[in-house]
Specification:
three-stranded antiparallel sheet; globular; 9 helices; Arc Repressor Mutant, subunit A; cAMP-binding protein; 251 residues; transcription; four-stranded antiparallel sheet; cNMP-bd_dom; alpha+beta; DNA-binding; Jelly Rolls
């Protein structure tokens, strides 16, 4: 993830604005107000913490590049990954409304964050109902994704779970991409997929082999690449209704 000295801070926020526009209407003035909001840049390596459970949140970070995840841990140290965050995602909009973090948030890959002071974001939102609505919609869509994940773990078999997750990631990446998304590398290891899907790494390995045989994915070493999305959709019986994309963002 190299530095681009010619890229202004306003340009860096383009992916965040595209994410909001993927589900909400914002005027040109609203978009400019977001682009002009002061923030600092922060870079983290894989597994570094962005937020810890119990923290008092004073900032609102937005993911500009890389992938991050939310996770909860049980008393015996077991981990459940409860959300995947992709470029363009606000990582903790809920802290604009509730003070204490109830989860851990970590970098999955090397990440770059735009870190806004919470007070600055609150000042932005107060006189701008369209931005306030976009934030609420973003929070609601995250809840919708969480419900689908609960169904995925509770009622789909291993093959359906993994195919469904891969489809979801494809369409979420497509929402904020500037051009059509082709094959792309999936950032989770087999161990992390197991923590996300409620399976064992051995079971994940067997399931990936089935998807490989179907031509839906390719695997090189420990990295998984999404290939045939139509095959994944068929296997998962996938519907993207729960992602609540606007008509303008449909592909």
């Amino acid at each position: 993830m190299g530095d681009d000295p010619f890229k202004s801070k306003e340009d860096r926020l383009g992916i965040f604005i595209r994410k909001l526009l993927s589900h909400s209407r914002l005027s040109a003035d609203d978009q400019q107000a977001i682009a002009s909001l002061p923030f600092s840049l922060r870079r983290l390596e894989p597994n570094e913490y962005i937020l810890r459970e119990g923290d008092l949140a004073k900032v609102c970070p937005v993911l500009l590049s890389g992938f991050a995840y939310r996770q909860k841990t049980s008393a015996d140290g077991g981990r459940q990954i409860v959300a995947l965050k992709i470029p363009g995602d606000a990582l903790d909009f809920q802290s604009l409304y509730v003070d204490i973090a109830d989860h851990n948030l970590q970098a999955l890959t090397p990440v770059e964050l735009a870190v806004f002071a919470q007070k600055d974001f609150e000042a932005l939102v107060a006189p701008r109902p369209n931005i306030a609505r976009a934030i609420i919609v973003d929070i609601l869509i995250e809840g919708s994704i969480g419900r689908e994940w609960l169904l995925n773990i509770g009622r789909r078999n291993a093959l359906g779970r993994l195919a469904h997750l891969l489809c979801e990631l494809y369409y979420r990446v497509q929402q904020i991409a500037l051009e059509e998304v082709g094959a792309f590398e999936f950032p989770l290891t087999q161990e992390q997929l197991a923590d996300l899907l409620g399976l064992t790494p051995v079971h994940i390995n067997r399931t990936i082999k089935i998807l490989e045989k179907e031509g839906a994915v390719k695997r090189v070493s420990r990295r998984l690449t999404i290939g045939d999305v139509d095959t994944l959709r068929r296997i998962a019986d996938f519907s993207d209704v729960y992602l609540h994309r606007t008509l303008d963002s449909l592909v």
